[in-house]
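Work Package 4 report. The design task specified in the project plan requires that, given a folded chain encoded as structure tokens, an amino acid be chosen for each position. We show below one input record used in the internal validation round.
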């Protein structure tokens, strides 16, 4: 049995792939060694495992380099984060060609074709940006609270659209297309409006970069993974958002844990 662990900047995920089932846990810890040990221990406790049942720990993420060769006596295999992102995203989406977007504290974009996984782009805009802006502008410190507020928000009081500028479409741009995020914010904008606008700006920024990256590397499928993937679903529902250019945005089940799953899959292949 192989455990995959993704040690991120704010959370650590651990997964077991067993007989077609995926068992997952998440913990919060700042120290990478404590985080990995805590995640492994919680996984074993929650699912009634003995440590000697675990053949190997496949570790990835920013904190993986802090681990030694063993964890609780189990051998540790360190997997490149980009490799784990690519393998996990395509396996969950059942695609062999895709641009996999890892939405974490920042955002990484990995192109996958059979036999090749390559980091092609990324941005510092991500979950860290979202929570930083939410805390600074609204005093909100959780995504759950931000979503709760955003459900009551109205982008028309914050974002400037193509309709606002031109009175209608411009070329193939729909009138509702954002011309400037926060370009119309005024005194009448409520905290709820701003909550939705923050989320929308993050989604649109990442979405546009993802489409450009997919075009550049010839990918038709864009697979969204990571904790922030749910924001795309939320904003799509709020705006009835449809991305152009024929690219398909896919959010597979267990997208939150794709990188940890990818590490485990890589170790299985190894």
């Amino acid at each position: 049995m192989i455990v995959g662990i993704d040690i991120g900047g704010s959370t650590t995920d651990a997964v077991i792939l067993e007989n077609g089932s995926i068992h997952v846990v998440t913990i919060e810890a700042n120290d990478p060694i404590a985080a990995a040990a805590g995640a492994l221990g919680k996984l074993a406790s929650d699912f009634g495992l003995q440590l000697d049942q675990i053949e190997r720990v496949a570790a990835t993420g920013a904190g993986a380099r802090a681990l030694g060769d063993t964890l609780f006596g189990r051998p540790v295999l360190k997997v490149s984060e980009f490799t784990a992102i690519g393998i996990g995203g395509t396996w969950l989406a059942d695609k062999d060609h895709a641009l996999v977007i890892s939405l974490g504290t920042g955002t990484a974009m990995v192109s996958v074709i059979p036999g090749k996984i390559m980091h092609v782009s990324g941005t510092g805009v991500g979950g860290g940006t979202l929570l930083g802006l939410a805390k600074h502008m609204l005093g909100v410190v959780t995504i759950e609270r931000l979503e709760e507020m955003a459900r009551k928000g109205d982008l028309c009081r914050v974002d400037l659209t193509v309709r606002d500028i031109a009175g209608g479409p411009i070329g193939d741009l729909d009138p509702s297309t954002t011309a400037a995020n926060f370009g119309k914010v005024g005194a009448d904008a409520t905290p709820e409006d701003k909550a939705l606008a923050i989320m929308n700006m993050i989604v649109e920024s990442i979405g546009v970069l993802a489409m450009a990256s997919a075009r550049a590397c010839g990918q038709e499928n864009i697979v969204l993974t990571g904790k922030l993937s749910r924001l795309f679903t939320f904003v799509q529902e709020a705006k009835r958002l449809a991305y152009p250019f024929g690219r398909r945005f896919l959010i597979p089940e267990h997208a939150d844990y794709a990188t940890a799953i990818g590490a485990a899959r890589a170790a299985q292949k190894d």
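The domain at 2-85+258-269 is CATH 3.30.420.40 (Nucleotidyltransferase; domain 5). Validation will be extended to a larger panel in the next phase.
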